[in-house]
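Can anyone check this?
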Amino acid sequence: MANTINTGKSERGWFQIYKPTQGYWTRLGTAIGVGILILWGAAWLFSRLEVYRSTTYGQYIQVGASIAWILIFGYLLYWFVGKKPETVDFLIAVEGEMKKVNWSTWPEVVGATKVVILFTILTSIMLFVVDTVFMLFFSTIGVLKATGMGDIIKSLFG
């Protein structure tokens, strides 16, 4: 029997994920979102390297750089979402907090939307009236030459 020293750390293999049973949906959503950004970046890089297309190895440069982009940032994504304890613990905590959120019901959302629309309309009417009053005032004292709506209102009252 070999002598082993227990350091208290559990040995994890290369492809083992840190706390694999926790924070699944948050990790999955993060990985999908960042994965889309990585693929978008690879497509952008591929299009930016179009200038090398006419050279002897241009197509290889385009494809190779794009694949390298995907591999490098894919590994970083895997490391942050699956292996790095600080990031994984944060994502697990986020999922735990999201389960505590009290989501609004559909009637509450509709009611709040009506209030916002009504408030926006009333605010725009109030700002129109105040702007018109200022325009009339400044055109009356000769600071502003009013054209448009101010002239129309002035002709109605003057």
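Reply from J.R.: I decoded it. The chain has two domains: 24-98, 106-157.
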